[in-house]
Amino acid sequence: MRVLAAMSGGVDSAVAAARAVEAGHEVVGVHLALSATPGTLRTGSRGCCSKEDAGDARRAADVLGIPFYVWDFADRFKEDVIDDFVAAYAAGETPNPCLRCNEKIKFAALADRAVALGFDAVATGHYARLEDGVLRRAVDADKDQSYVLAVLTAEQLGRAMFPVGDTPKPQIRAEAAERGLAVADKPDSHDICFIPSGDTRAFLGAKIGVRPGAIVDSDGRKLAEHEGVHGFTIGQRKGLGLPGPAPDGRPRYVTEIDPDSGTVRVGGAEDLEVSTVLAERPIWTSGAAPDGPIECVAQVRAHGGTAPAVAEAVDGGLVVRLREPLTGVARGQAVVLYRPDPAGDEVIGSGTISGTARAEADLVRSTPDSAR
């Protein structure tokens, strides 16, 4: 096969490309330039897609003896990932930009160009497995990225390759060293790649500006003012700008965000529990929605936040009834469904969370007008 290897400049994508070459494929490496000012996007282990990363990717391609190109996707990345991220926070949501990047850039824009140029598949360094078209968790549970890949359609999965998903990360680093790849010990990037400072609130504040509102308790009493709902996420405990804990001494958490009124509601840990999740834009990895309710395991964060559940496609959306409550579930995140077999590693589908409730009867009330 002709394989386009997306090379970020890190160890995982370098080994993925190496394995594709070793498997006998005709491999071409490509680095995605995702920033108009790439020199600003790497600070130690923070950020990615910098000039340093492009150079590391090129050197890895040279070691592997494969052609290498840099493709400029900065405009698409800004529109589909950065602007989407800012708009979601402004609407009181908590998006995952890695999900959007996989969906819109790496397995849409990049894959479409690859197919147009005659490539059969795109190989990446994601930690996940593909077996007969079925997306599964990676062998290395600590590095598993199936959650952020669950937004891919059956067609997109059909032209994807994840060569490192069957191997723990320490072995990947050892393999890179054996292959003479200089990135063998390169630190993994952390946080959001286009916010190298790690200060998400400051980044959003510069983009959105001041949009004052009130912080209220569970009874609606005003406790403080804030400069914008973009500074908060469901389950947040620190940085609330409150003078202290609740009168009973217990910590306060963000439990609701209403972007229309600018109100941020806080309450106790018990107020974070939800039993029902409503999601929009469902994607089924098989290509078709299931016929009726299905047993599954629902995951609502990239790492952690899982519970047994019953999911059902309803009116073009998705309703997930949790058998055990989950906390810190926010609109804009993804709910990913896994098959509840002993392995529990097969992805069934996903959706973007649009509402949550402690009881299903409260679901519509808990979903702001702007999210419906």
Cα separation of the termini: 44 Å
Strand content: 25-35%
Total DSSP E strands: 19
Biggest β-sheet strands, sense, barrel: 6 strands, antiparallel, barrel
Structural class designation:
alpha/beta
Rg of Cα set: 21 Å
What kind of assembly state do the chains in view correspond to?
A: single chain
Helical percentage = 10-25%
Strand order across the largest sheet: 14-17-16-15-18-19
In DSSP terms (H or I, runs of 4 or more residues), the helix count works out at 8
Compose a concise summary of this entry:
The chain has 372 residues and is an alpha/beta fold. It has helices at 11-22, 51-64, 74-90, 97-116, 146-149, 154-157, 169-178, 200-208; strands spanning 2-6, 26-33, 42-43, 46-47, 68-72, 121-123, 128-131, 134-137, 160-161, 213-216, 222-226, 253-258, 263-267, 274-284, 294-299, 306-314, 317-326, 334-338, 347-357. It has eight helices and 19 strands.
Describe the structure.
The chain has eight helices and 19 strands. It is globular, with a radius of gyration of 21 Å. Residues 364-372 have low confidence and may be disordered. The strands form five sheets. It has a six-stranded antiparallel beta barrel with strand order 14-17-16-15-18-19. A five-stranded parallel β-sheet has the order 5-2-1-6-9, sandwiched between helices. Strands 11-10-13-12 form a four-stranded mixed β-sheet, with no helix packed on it. With 372 residues, the chain is α/β, with parallel strands linked by helices. It has helices at 11-22, 51-64, 74-90, 97-116, 146-149, 154-157, 169-178, 200-208, and strands at residues 2-6, 26-33, 42-43, 46-47, 68-72, 121-123, 128-131, 134-137, 160-161, 213-216, 222-226, 253-258, 263-267, 274-284, 294-299, 306-314, 317-326, 334-338, 347-357. α1 (11-22) packs parallel to α2 (51-64) and α3 (74-90) runs antiparallel to α4 (97-116).
